[in-house]
Design a protein that fits this description.
- This protein is of the alpha+beta class.
- It has 2 domains: 47 residues, no CATH class; 167 residues, Arylsulfatase, C-terminal domain, CATH 3.30.1120.10.
- 33% of the residues lie in helices and 11% in strands.
- It has a 4-stranded antiparallel β-sheet, covered by helices on one side. Strands 1-2 form a two-stranded antiparallel ribbon.
- The longest helix is centred in the N-terminal third of the chain and has 28 residues.
- This is Sulfatase.
- One of its GO terms (molecular function) is metal ion binding.
- InterPro entries: Alkaline_phosphatase_core_sf, Sulfatase_N.
- It comes from Halorubrum tropicale.
- Keywords: Hydrolase, Metal-binding.
């Protein structure tokens, strides 16, 4: 079925309604292309030996929390994304627990009969995790989430105010996921014990990552490699002379 909405284009971003329609059109178009791919696999008799993973790198904001057309931040509108895995060995099921992108590679390797190297710290789905951890804005904002709570910690307020939409005062923000699913009310002052507990768990996770990376948070890239990366991104439509 053809998309009912126009594709997401710059001219459609002037209003919230227009932007949503364009975004919906993009989703509809992508859904149609995934359907074509699955139809091909079925016609070639490949579905019994093919794993399919559908996900996204981030969400999008249409005015929620005062953010428009920006995916930066740690609200669910930015970081809660679809993850659909077709595994011909398994019956279909919906996982209600926490998972994250680091679980994808171990899951695919397991399907292929390959053991995950020690450096891959994800789970094999459908196993879930006790908490989810994420970073944004060049590691200047971090989040840890359990089934019940989400703690957001800004690490460099000056940087966030200069480079992103952030307008807070730098204090950690705590959200009660069950009773405040849209994350409107910061309850950190009412639950300092939960803030401390989650902050300790977050700091432990950061230390693990730093140990794995040898204490470094960046990777040096040669100019020649960078030119090649720019070329590849440009071919995919992700980069041009104005934003690289």
């Amino acid at each position: 079925m053809a998309a009912e909405f126009p594709p997401y284009a710059a001219g459609e971003r002037e209003t919230v309604g227009g932007s949503k329609r364009a975004y919906d059109g993009t989703i509809s178009w992508v859904d149609e292309q995934i359907g074509r791919l699955i139809d091909y696999f079925e016609s070639e008799g490949m579905m019994d030996e093919t794993m399919i993973v559908v996900t996204a790198d981030h969400g999008h904001n249409f005015g929620e929390h005062g953010i428009f057309s920006d995916n930066c931040g740690m609200f669910d509108t930015s970081i809660k994304v679809p993850l659909v895995v077709y595994d011909p060995r398994e019956e279909g099921q919906r996982i209600s627990g926490l998972v994250q992108h680091t679980d994808i590679v171990p899951t695919v390797l397991d399907y292929a009969g390959v053991s995950s190297p020690d450096l891959y710290r994800g789970n094999v789905l459908p196993d879930t995790r006790e908490f989810a951890f994420a970073e944004a804005a060049e590691q200047h904002m971090r989040m840890i989430r359990t089934d019940d709570w989400k703690l957001v910690v800004p690490e460099d307020v000056a940087y966030l105010k200069d480079q992103y939409w952030y307008d807070g005062d730098g204090t950690p923000e705590l959200y009660d996921i069950h009773n405040d699913s849209t994350e409107e009310n910061d309850v950190s002052e009412e639950h300092p014990d939960i803030v401390r507990r989650l902050r300790r768990r977050m700091d432990k996770e950061v230390r693990k990552q730093q140990e794995f990376e040898g204490g470094e948070r960046s990777v040096e890239i040669e100019e020649e490699e960078l030119d090649d990366i720019r070329s590849q991104l440009g071919a995919l439509g992700y980069a041009d002379d104005d934003n690289v």
